[in-house]
Amino acid sequence: MRFKYPIFVSTLLCLFMALGLQAQDNLSWKKHAKLAESLFNNAQYEEAGEHYRSAWKKKTKKKELIYKAGECFYLVRDYANAVDCWQHVKDDIETDPMIGLKYARVLKQNGQYEAASSELVNFLSNYKGDDKGVVSLIVQNEIRGCELAAQMASKGDDVNIRVEHLGSNINTPETEFAPFPYGEEVLYFSSTMGHRAEIYRSLKANGEWAKATPIENFPAIEDKHFCNGTLTPDTKRFYFTICENEEAWGGMTTRCQIYVTQRVGKTWAAPQKLPDYINEPGVSTTHPWVVHDGNTEILYFASNKSGGNGGMDIWYSTREINSNANDFTLPINAGTTINTRGDEITPYYDAVEGVLYFASNGQVSIGGFDIMKSKGARSNWQRAENVGTPINSPADDFFFVKTSSGKGGFFVSNRTFGTEKLTTTDEDIFEFEYLTPTRQWFAKGEVYNRQTGSQLSNVEIALYEIMSTGKKRFISKEVSEDGAYNFSVEPSKKYLLEAIKEGYASATYEFDTYDFATYTDFGAPIYMNEEQMIGGSEPVAEKEKPADPVVNKPKTSTPPVTQPTKEPAPPVLKETKEAVAANEPEKPLTDTPPVESKEEKAEMPPEDNPATTEDTGTGYKIQIIALSKLDLDHPRFKNVKKFGQLESEFFEERGLYRVMIGGYSTVADAVGDLKTIRSYKDFSDAFIVEYKNGKRMSVIQK
Asked: CA–CA distance from 405 to each of 180, 475, 508, 525 (Å)?
């Protein structure tokens, strides 16, 4: 419903607010204070703060009232109001010996760096506590943060990063956190919009994120918060947290434990809590992020468990991937390079970079929590670096994560952001994009005439993405004057290139980018046959791995961690009308992911199988396929072995193994089998080849 007279409505609302404030103003300071105490006990801190402040205004001698008001605003991270209250008691060490440090910190998080530095110096000079040595280190760290903020301000934001606040289909007046992207067009995240923390899903259609909906086929979890989800690279295990529901969601103050659910067909099994030596009783263990390193699964998480360096620390534990049990090793602290006396939370490991991203309020920060990064693995790390602005801000910033392409990602912040976000009292999800990607992947190659070996000109080449359903999605097309092609591709996807030229049968090349952590170029030569040849083009079923791996590999001290061999497939969520569009992205379905093929060692081509035709005279063979790697025991050949013995010969010039069925004395005999062989999907391009005295002559023309 739209109001016809918006100015009248706005005036009416202002009048009601004024009447409400006037009614409150009629309360005595004692009634304000009593109401504030009741609201505070019910965790309604913002409202409690207003009443404590109203009580103080009527009784300014009672400084504990304005101190409590500031405390309430600080709890909800309303920095501006906390500054307004605590400025009146910043030197009142009898009320709180640490009030000067608290006041300086809210100035800092309000972006008032010069004033914050001055108050930090003032606080330390007057502090008389027995722990002054430790407090001095904390204050000096805060001063360095103010200095870093000034340096960043003079340099300006990183112009290569564009930050966008996600709209109301994702963000609400409640708290949104823990984004987990699936590809580029599906986003999982946690939110308290339903009065408890749950995991939601949104699809991007036509460049816009659709209205988020709760996950659908997830095991039922009653009465408690469940959030902070992450999926294993092989998509078989989904880690998340279940948190206590004693009161409203309190972020870090809510006690969480890590659980895992395993894929069973197209559903998920009942969640299992990880062992007590990970979920230590009485502490909070949260923010799981999992990666694979060879046969080892590494679980990074945050916890205030015993044996840490301060508050929340980053830890890790490992298990064998092939084990079905939750037999994790004892957790190991990530070390003092990462962890401080403060809090370190929300770990995310980028396997391409070999870098851990995390949030910290104990490292040098320009606000409260800042996002940091450190190269390494497990407990072996280089010095942590602040990622800078515009990712970090004077407020709290955490939950940094990249998309699989590395072109951008998401993070969470309670910062104000133009007219889209006016307060710092709730956390929202932000999306960022690298305008010039830090790393790019390509498919480069040339198109050749198969018979002459010459490079073709004026070839139309199209790139398609092969979706999980097997359908093709058009990406782009180019007409190459010299037969060379160059397409930008993304990690962890399947693609198909199709070459079209007048007078030639179309030729295709299918490839995937699962090994994106090692290679940047996934192209290969494409060979085209002239149209008069039977069977069209000689298919290349699988390309060799690119010859030139990326130079920037992780150092031996930081072993690379393998990424998914398939895009992660979290639990399927309910659909939304907004998501149903012509170009709707693929859902991360529950299909069992393909088993990753083992790396084959380079070796000399094997000798050809003995031919069934005699070495003298004329004979004919049906070439059914050409492969870059030969395995005649592959299941694809099961149905064609009945036509005769499989033979192979290595075509050195192309680096391919030709696979054939031999023993035909006439073309007519071969044609009789050719039609049936072509009916099989893998051999639809089969054709007949003539041999004389054991030597390959030519493709039979019709």
From this structure: 14, 15, 24, 24
End position of a domain, from candidates 434, 463, 487: 434
| pLDDT tens by residue, 566-621 | 333 344 333 333 333 333 444 443 333 333 333 333 232 333 333 333 456 788 89
Distances 156 to 50, 421, 500 between C-alpha atoms, Å: 36, 22, 49
User: Residue 485 domain-assigned?
Assistant: yes
Count of domains in the chain? 3
Cis bond leading into 437, ω under 30°? Answer: no
Q: How far is CA 514 from CA 298, 353, 489, in A?
A: 19, 15, 11
The reply to whether 348 falls in a domain is yes
Q: What is the DSSP string of 66-81?
A: HHHHHHHHHHTT-HHH
Strands laid side by side in the 695-699 sheet: 646-651, 656-664, 618-627, 687-692, 695-699
Q: What φ, ψ does residue 593 adopt, rounded to 5°? A: -70, 150
Strand partners, 231: 238
At 439, list the tokens.
């790393």
Paired strand residues for 466 = 472, 494
Widest pairwise Cα distance in the chain: 115
Q: Do 428 and 283 share a structural domain?
A: yes
Q: Alpha-carbon Rg of the chain, whole angstroms? A: 32
What is the DSSP secondary structure assignment for residue 572, as one 8-state letter? -
Indicate the SS3 state at residue 466. Answer: strand
Which of residues 403, 434, 465 is at a domain's end?
A: 434
Quick check: 290 pLDDT over 90? yes
CATH code at position 368: 2.115.10.20
Residue 74 counted as domain residue: no
Least confident of 289-293, 337-341, 630-634: 630-634
Check: CB of residue 82 under 8 Å from CB of residue 74. yes
Average pLDDT over residues 540-549: 38
The token pair that represents 88 in the structure block: 């009146």
Whole-angstrom Cα distance, residue 669 to residue 613? 13
Compute the distance between CA of residue 628 and CA of residue 541 in angstroms, rounded to an integer. Answer: 7
C-alpha dist (Å) from residue 568 to 236, 357, 589, 674: 9, 20, 9, 41
Q: Can you give the pLDDT at residue 436?
A: 81
Alpha helices for 308-363 (secondary structure H): none
Q: How far apart are CA 205 and CA 639, in angstroms?
A: 42
Question: Does residue 291 carry a pLDDT above 70?
Answer: yes
Report CA 682 to chain centroid distance, whole Å: 35
pTM for the whole structure: 0.69
Would you state the pLDDT for residue 670? 86
Q: Examine the domain organization and report whether 269 and 202 are in the same domain.
A: yes
Of 686, 596, 597, 593, residue with least CA distance to 637: 686
pLDDT surpassing 50 at residue 9:
no
Res 365: pLDDT: 97
Whether residue 10 lies inside any domain: the answer is no
Q: Report phi then psi at 477, rounded to 5.
A: -145, 145
**Domain check: are 325 and 277 in the same one?**
yes
Which residues on neighbouring strands pair with residue 478, listed in sequence order? Answer: 461
Q: Which two tokens stand for residue 473?
A: 């999605």
Q: Do 389 and 451 sit in the same domain of this protein?
A: no
| Structure tokens, 330 | 């004892």
What average pLDDT does range 411-438 have in this prediction?
93
Strands 646-651 and 656-664, sheet pairing: antiparallel
Q: How far is residue 304's CA from residue 315's CA, in Å, rounded to a whole number?
A: 10
User: Using CA atoms, how far apart are residues 197 and 177, in angstroms rounded to an integer?
Assistant: 9
Residues with Cβ within 8 Å of 69's Cβ and at least 6 positions away in sequence, in order, are 36, 49, 50, 52, 53, 56, 81, 85
Place of tokens 């149209």: 531
Cα dihedral sign, 612-616-621-625 = positive
What does the block give as tokens for 456?
Answer: 């073709």
- pLDDT band per the 50, 70, 90 thresholds, residue 24: low
Range of the domain at 631: 618-699
